[in-house]
Design brief:
356 residues, alpha+beta, five-stranded mixed sheet, three-stranded mixed sheet, 15 helices
Protein backbone atom coordinates (compact mmCIF):
# COMPACT_ATOMS: atom_id res chain seq x y z
CA UNK A 1 0.00 0.00 0.00
CA UNK A 2 1.23 3.46 -0.89
CA UNK A 3 1.94 5.47 2.28
CA UNK A 4 2.70 9.19 2.06
CA UNK A 5 3.77 11.84 4.59
CA UNK A 6 1.30 14.49 5.69
CA UNK A 7 2.78 17.29 3.59
CA UNK A 8 2.47 15.16 0.46
CA UNK A 9 -1.18 14.34 1.21
CA UNK A 10 -1.89 18.03 1.80
CA UNK A 11 -0.24 18.97 -1.50
CA UNK A 12 -2.50 16.39 -3.20
CA UNK A 13 -5.56 17.97 -1.57
CA UNK A 14 -4.45 21.50 -2.39
CA UNK A 15 -4.28 20.51 -6.06
CA UNK A 16 -7.66 18.74 -5.86
CA UNK A 17 -9.20 21.97 -4.60
CA UNK A 18 -7.47 23.96 -7.39
CA UNK A 19 -5.53 25.96 -4.81
CA UNK A 20 -2.21 25.14 -6.49
CA UNK A 21 -3.12 27.30 -9.48
CA UNK A 22 -6.25 29.16 -10.43
CA UNK A 23 -8.63 27.63 -12.97
CA UNK A 24 -11.89 28.55 -14.69
CA UNK A 25 -14.85 29.26 -12.43
CA UNK A 26 -16.86 26.26 -13.63
CA UNK A 27 -14.03 23.89 -12.78
CA UNK A 28 -13.50 25.55 -9.41
CA UNK A 29 -17.15 25.22 -8.39
CA UNK A 30 -17.45 21.65 -9.63
CA UNK A 31 -14.63 20.26 -7.48
CA UNK A 32 -16.70 19.92 -4.28
CA UNK A 33 -18.95 22.99 -4.34
CA UNK A 34 -18.40 26.25 -2.45
CA UNK A 35 -19.89 26.65 1.01
CA UNK A 36 -21.84 29.90 1.30
CA UNK A 37 -20.75 30.68 4.82
CA UNK A 38 -20.38 33.28 6.14
CA UNK A 39 -23.55 34.30 4.28
CA UNK A 40 -23.08 36.85 1.53
CA UNK A 41 -19.38 36.34 0.87
CA UNK A 42 -18.22 32.85 1.84
CA UNK A 43 -18.68 31.30 -1.61
CA UNK A 44 -17.22 34.35 -3.38
CA UNK A 45 -14.10 34.19 -1.22
CA UNK A 46 -13.74 30.47 -1.88
CA UNK A 47 -14.09 31.06 -5.62
CA UNK A 48 -11.50 33.88 -5.55
CA UNK A 49 -8.97 31.49 -4.03
CA UNK A 50 -9.49 29.12 -6.97
CA UNK A 51 -10.34 31.35 -9.92
CA UNK A 52 -10.13 34.94 -11.13
CA UNK A 53 -13.42 34.53 -13.02
CA UNK A 54 -16.82 35.65 -11.71
CA UNK A 55 -19.33 33.13 -10.43
CA UNK A 56 -20.66 31.28 -13.48
CA UNK A 57 -24.37 31.55 -14.33
CA UNK A 58 -25.11 27.81 -14.34
CA UNK A 59 -24.95 27.31 -10.57
CA UNK A 60 -27.50 26.87 -7.83
CA UNK A 61 -27.37 27.37 -4.08
CA UNK A 62 -28.79 24.51 -2.06
CA UNK A 63 -28.67 23.02 1.43
CA UNK A 64 -26.11 20.27 0.96
CA UNK A 65 -23.35 18.75 3.12
CA UNK A 66 -24.23 19.00 6.83
CA UNK A 67 -27.31 20.96 5.76
CA UNK A 68 -25.11 23.96 4.93
CA UNK A 69 -25.78 26.17 1.89
CA UNK A 70 -23.43 25.33 -0.99
CA UNK A 71 -23.07 26.83 -4.44
CA UNK A 72 -22.89 23.91 -6.87
CA UNK A 73 -23.19 23.34 -10.64
CA UNK A 74 -26.85 23.18 -11.62
CA UNK A 75 -26.31 20.18 -13.90
CA UNK A 76 -24.56 18.25 -11.12
CA UNK A 77 -26.84 19.21 -8.24
CA UNK A 78 -27.74 15.58 -7.45
CA UNK A 79 -24.09 14.89 -6.58
CA UNK A 80 -24.42 17.38 -3.73
CA UNK A 81 -28.00 16.54 -2.70
CA UNK A 82 -29.77 13.25 -3.49
CA UNK A 83 -26.53 11.27 -3.38
CA UNK A 84 -26.38 12.00 0.36
CA UNK A 85 -29.76 10.50 1.22
CA UNK A 86 -29.77 7.02 2.83
CA UNK A 87 -32.51 4.59 1.85
CA UNK A 88 -33.34 3.23 5.30
CA UNK A 89 -34.90 4.66 8.46
CA UNK A 90 -31.73 4.32 10.52
CA UNK A 91 -29.74 6.17 7.89
CA UNK A 92 -32.24 9.02 7.71
CA UNK A 93 -31.62 9.68 11.40
CA UNK A 94 -28.03 10.55 10.51
CA UNK A 95 -29.21 12.88 7.73
CA UNK A 96 -31.42 15.00 10.01
CA UNK A 97 -29.34 14.61 13.18
CA UNK A 98 -29.82 12.56 16.33
CA UNK A 99 -31.68 15.17 18.39
CA UNK A 100 -34.30 16.13 15.75
CA UNK A 101 -34.82 12.45 14.95
CA UNK A 102 -35.40 11.67 18.64
CA UNK A 103 -37.95 14.48 18.90
CA UNK A 104 -40.15 13.30 16.04
CA UNK A 105 -39.95 9.68 17.20
CA UNK A 106 -41.17 10.77 20.63
CA UNK A 107 -44.07 12.50 18.87
CA UNK A 108 -45.02 9.22 17.22
CA UNK A 109 -43.50 9.69 13.77
CA UNK A 110 -40.89 7.68 11.94
CA UNK A 111 -38.12 9.90 10.57
CA UNK A 112 -38.94 8.98 6.98
CA UNK A 113 -42.62 9.74 7.60
CA UNK A 114 -41.76 13.12 9.11
CA UNK A 115 -39.50 13.99 6.18
CA UNK A 116 -42.29 13.10 3.74
CA UNK A 117 -44.73 15.38 5.55
CA UNK A 118 -42.23 18.25 5.67
CA UNK A 119 -41.40 17.79 1.99
CA UNK A 120 -45.07 17.78 0.98
CA UNK A 121 -45.74 20.92 3.03
CA UNK A 122 -42.75 22.69 1.45
CA UNK A 123 -43.81 21.76 -2.09
CA UNK A 124 -47.31 23.06 -1.48
CA UNK A 125 -46.14 26.21 0.29
CA UNK A 126 -43.67 27.13 -2.45
CA UNK A 127 -46.01 26.51 -5.37
CA UNK A 128 -46.60 30.24 -5.69
CA UNK A 129 -42.92 31.14 -5.83
CA UNK A 130 -39.93 31.75 -3.57
CA UNK A 131 -40.45 32.64 0.09
CA UNK A 132 -38.12 34.31 2.57
CA UNK A 133 -37.36 32.65 5.88
CA UNK A 134 -40.33 33.97 7.86
CA UNK A 135 -42.85 33.36 5.11
CA UNK A 136 -41.42 29.91 4.44
CA UNK A 137 -41.75 28.86 8.07
CA UNK A 138 -45.26 30.32 8.24
CA UNK A 139 -46.23 28.25 5.20
CA UNK A 140 -44.91 25.16 6.97
CA UNK A 141 -46.79 26.02 10.18
CA UNK A 142 -50.02 26.23 8.22
CA UNK A 143 -49.56 22.77 6.75
CA UNK A 144 -47.90 20.58 9.40
CA UNK A 145 -49.20 18.91 12.56
CA UNK A 146 -48.15 20.34 15.93
CA UNK A 147 -45.92 17.35 16.61
CA UNK A 148 -43.53 18.52 13.86
CA UNK A 149 -43.53 22.14 15.03
CA UNK A 150 -41.68 22.25 18.36
CA UNK A 151 -41.15 25.48 20.27
CA UNK A 152 -37.91 27.31 19.52
CA UNK A 153 -36.71 29.50 22.38
CA UNK A 154 -34.32 31.40 20.14
CA UNK A 155 -37.01 32.38 17.61
CA UNK A 156 -39.82 32.47 20.18
CA UNK A 157 -42.02 30.54 17.78
CA UNK A 158 -43.03 27.06 16.69
CA UNK A 159 -41.25 25.83 13.56
CA UNK A 160 -39.79 22.77 11.86
CA UNK A 161 -36.43 21.81 13.31
CA UNK A 162 -33.45 22.84 11.11
CA UNK A 163 -32.42 19.22 10.61
CA UNK A 164 -35.67 18.65 8.72
CA UNK A 165 -35.96 21.82 6.63
CA UNK A 166 -32.26 21.64 5.74
CA UNK A 167 -32.83 18.08 4.52
CA UNK A 168 -35.15 19.51 1.87
CA UNK A 169 -32.04 20.25 -0.19
CA UNK A 170 -30.82 16.64 -0.28
CA UNK A 171 -34.43 15.54 -0.84
CA UNK A 172 -34.44 17.73 -3.99
CA UNK A 173 -37.40 19.78 -2.81
CA UNK A 174 -35.80 23.21 -2.35
CA UNK A 175 -33.02 25.48 -3.58
CA UNK A 176 -31.96 28.89 -2.26
CA UNK A 177 -32.14 31.55 -5.00
CA UNK A 178 -31.16 34.27 -2.51
CA UNK A 179 -29.92 34.53 1.06
CA UNK A 180 -32.44 32.97 3.50
CA UNK A 181 -34.91 32.40 0.65
CA UNK A 182 -36.27 29.08 -0.59
CA UNK A 183 -37.81 28.00 -3.89
CA UNK A 184 -38.79 24.71 -5.49
CA UNK A 185 -35.93 22.76 -7.06
CA UNK A 186 -35.91 21.89 -10.74
CA UNK A 187 -36.47 18.21 -11.59
CA UNK A 188 -33.13 16.35 -11.62
CA UNK A 189 -31.51 15.18 -14.83
CA UNK A 190 -28.60 13.04 -13.61
CA UNK A 191 -29.40 9.39 -12.77
CA UNK A 192 -29.18 8.78 -9.04
CA UNK A 193 -26.60 5.99 -9.23
CA UNK A 194 -24.37 8.18 -11.38
CA UNK A 195 -24.66 10.97 -8.81
CA UNK A 196 -23.77 8.63 -5.95
CA UNK A 197 -20.67 7.39 -7.73
CA UNK A 198 -19.63 10.92 -8.65
CA UNK A 199 -19.92 12.07 -5.04
CA UNK A 200 -17.28 9.53 -3.99
CA UNK A 201 -15.02 10.51 -6.88
CA UNK A 202 -15.16 14.21 -6.07
CA UNK A 203 -14.72 13.60 -2.35
CA UNK A 204 -11.60 11.52 -2.93
CA UNK A 205 -10.13 13.96 -5.46
CA UNK A 206 -10.12 16.73 -2.86
CA UNK A 207 -9.81 14.84 0.46
CA UNK A 208 -8.03 11.57 -0.35
CA UNK A 209 -6.63 9.39 0.99
CA UNK A 210 -9.89 9.06 2.89
CA UNK A 211 -12.46 6.53 4.10
CA UNK A 212 -16.20 6.09 3.88
CA UNK A 213 -16.40 6.93 7.59
CA UNK A 214 -14.80 10.30 6.90
CA UNK A 215 -17.25 10.94 4.08
CA UNK A 216 -20.15 10.13 6.39
CA UNK A 217 -18.95 12.41 9.17
CA UNK A 218 -18.00 15.27 6.85
CA UNK A 219 -21.19 15.20 4.78
CA UNK A 220 -23.57 14.20 7.62
CA UNK A 221 -24.93 11.00 6.23
CA UNK A 222 -25.05 7.47 7.59
CA UNK A 223 -21.79 5.49 7.68
CA UNK A 224 -23.67 2.51 6.22
CA UNK A 225 -24.81 4.67 3.30
CA UNK A 226 -21.32 6.06 2.74
CA UNK A 227 -19.95 2.51 2.74
CA UNK A 228 -22.41 1.56 -0.01
CA UNK A 229 -21.32 4.60 -2.00
CA UNK A 230 -17.68 3.51 -1.78
CA UNK A 231 -18.63 -0.05 -2.74
CA UNK A 232 -20.32 1.33 -5.84
CA UNK A 233 -16.97 2.54 -7.21
CA UNK A 234 -14.67 -0.04 -5.57
CA UNK A 235 -13.10 -1.01 -8.92
CA UNK A 236 -11.96 2.62 -9.32
CA UNK A 237 -10.24 2.80 -5.92
CA UNK A 238 -6.65 2.30 -4.83
CA UNK A 239 -5.62 1.81 -1.22
CA UNK A 240 -3.34 4.52 0.19
CA UNK A 241 -2.46 5.86 3.61
CA UNK A 242 -1.22 9.03 5.28
CA UNK A 243 1.52 8.21 7.79
CA UNK A 244 -0.11 4.85 8.45
CA UNK A 245 -3.74 6.04 8.49
CA UNK A 246 -5.43 3.90 5.86
CA UNK A 247 -7.77 5.20 3.20
CA UNK A 248 -8.41 5.31 -0.53
CA UNK A 249 -7.80 7.49 -3.54
CA UNK A 250 -9.04 7.07 -7.07
CA UNK A 251 -6.72 4.78 -9.00
CA UNK A 252 -6.47 7.45 -11.69
CA UNK A 253 -5.15 9.90 -9.05
CA UNK A 254 -2.31 7.75 -7.70
CA UNK A 255 0.27 9.55 -9.83
CA UNK A 256 -0.90 12.90 -8.45
CA UNK A 257 -0.57 11.56 -4.90
CA UNK A 258 2.93 10.25 -5.62
CA UNK A 259 4.02 13.56 -7.16
CA UNK A 260 1.60 16.42 -6.38
CA UNK A 261 1.97 19.53 -8.53
CA UNK A 262 3.67 22.48 -6.83
CA UNK A 263 1.44 25.26 -5.54
CA UNK A 264 2.25 28.93 -5.98
CA UNK A 265 0.80 32.19 -4.73
CA UNK A 266 -1.09 33.62 -1.78
CA UNK A 267 -4.68 32.76 -0.95
CA UNK A 268 -6.96 34.01 1.82
CA UNK A 269 -9.32 31.18 2.72
CA UNK A 270 -12.37 31.64 4.91
CA UNK A 271 -12.67 29.55 8.05
CA UNK A 272 -15.32 27.39 6.35
CA UNK A 273 -13.58 27.09 3.00
CA UNK A 274 -13.90 23.50 1.69
CA UNK A 275 -10.13 22.99 2.03
CA UNK A 276 -10.03 24.21 5.64
CA UNK A 277 -13.14 22.15 6.43
CA UNK A 278 -11.50 18.89 5.37
CA UNK A 279 -12.46 15.86 7.47
CA UNK A 280 -8.85 15.03 8.28
CA UNK A 281 -8.00 17.92 10.60
CA UNK A 282 -5.05 16.10 12.16
CA UNK A 283 -3.17 16.06 8.88
CA UNK A 284 -3.95 19.72 8.26
CA UNK A 285 -2.54 20.98 11.59
CA UNK A 286 -0.06 18.17 12.35
CA UNK A 287 1.23 18.06 15.90
CA UNK A 288 0.55 21.75 16.45
CA UNK A 289 -2.10 21.56 19.16
CA UNK A 290 -2.11 25.33 19.64
CA UNK A 291 -2.86 25.84 15.94
CA UNK A 292 -5.72 23.34 16.08
CA UNK A 293 -7.31 25.24 18.97
CA UNK A 294 -6.95 28.54 17.14
CA UNK A 295 -8.19 27.24 13.81
CA UNK A 296 -11.16 25.25 15.12
CA UNK A 297 -12.62 27.09 18.12
CA UNK A 298 -16.16 26.31 19.20
CA UNK A 299 -17.37 29.66 17.85
CA UNK A 300 -16.04 31.96 15.14
CA UNK A 301 -13.34 30.29 13.06
CA UNK A 302 -10.53 32.43 11.67
CA UNK A 303 -9.54 32.26 8.04
CA UNK A 304 -6.32 30.73 6.74
CA UNK A 305 -3.48 32.35 4.83
CA UNK A 306 -2.23 29.80 2.33
CA UNK A 307 1.20 30.52 0.82
CA UNK A 308 2.46 28.18 -1.90
CA UNK A 309 -0.01 25.60 -0.66
CA UNK A 310 0.98 25.70 3.01
CA UNK A 311 -0.80 27.21 6.01
CA UNK A 312 1.30 30.30 6.78
CA UNK A 313 -1.01 32.16 9.13
CA UNK A 314 -4.53 32.93 10.27
CA UNK A 315 -6.66 36.00 9.65
CA UNK A 316 -9.83 37.63 10.89
CA UNK A 317 -11.78 40.43 9.26
CA UNK A 318 -13.74 43.06 11.17
CA UNK A 319 -15.82 45.80 9.52
CA UNK A 320 -15.19 49.33 10.77
CA UNK A 321 -17.51 51.51 8.74
CA UNK A 322 -16.59 50.87 5.12
CA UNK A 323 -13.13 49.55 6.00
CA UNK A 324 -12.35 45.88 6.58
CA UNK A 325 -9.70 45.54 9.25
CA UNK A 326 -7.74 42.34 8.66
CA UNK A 327 -5.95 41.02 11.73
CA UNK A 328 -3.11 38.64 10.79
CA UNK A 329 -1.52 35.98 12.98
CA UNK A 330 1.57 34.59 11.25
CA UNK A 331 3.01 31.15 11.97
CA UNK A 332 6.38 32.24 10.57
CA UNK A 333 7.50 34.90 8.12
CA UNK A 334 4.84 37.33 6.88
CA UNK A 335 3.96 37.85 3.21
CA UNK A 336 2.08 40.53 1.29
CA UNK A 337 -1.67 39.80 1.37
CA UNK A 338 -2.89 43.31 0.54
CA UNK A 339 -4.29 42.45 -2.88
CA UNK A 340 -6.25 39.44 -1.66
CA UNK A 341 -7.48 41.32 1.41
CA UNK A 342 -8.78 44.12 -0.82
CA UNK A 343 -10.82 41.64 -2.84
CA UNK A 344 -12.28 40.10 0.32
CA UNK A 345 -13.13 43.63 1.50
CA UNK A 346 -15.11 44.26 -1.70
CA UNK A 347 -17.10 41.07 -1.12
CA UNK A 348 -18.03 42.44 2.30
CA UNK A 349 -19.17 45.80 0.89
CA UNK A 350 -16.10 47.63 2.15
CA UNK A 351 -14.15 50.21 0.12
CA UNK A 352 -10.75 49.07 1.37
CA UNK A 353 -8.87 46.66 3.58
CA UNK A 354 -6.56 47.71 6.39
CA UNK A 355 -3.99 45.20 7.59
CA UNK A 356 -3.45 45.24 11.36
Amino acid sequence: MLDVPADQALAFRVAGHHLDRRVGAEEAVAAIGLQEYPPGWGALAALRARSLDPLPPEVVQVNSFRGSPYVVPSADARVFTAALVPEDEAGLKSLVGAAPAKEVIEEGYAVGEALSLVAAAAREGLEGGPLDRDAFHQAMRERLPDGLLPWCRGCQSHHVRPGFWRALGPLEVTVMPEKATWALAEPPAMPLEAARAELVRRFLRVYGPATHTQLAGWAQTAPSHAKKLFEGVREELAAASVEGRKGFVLACDVDRLVSPPPATGVRLLGGYDPYVAQPDRDTLVGANGALKKKLFPSVGRPGVVLVDGRVAGLWRGRKQGDVLEVDLDWLGDSVDVAEEASVIASFRDCSEARLV
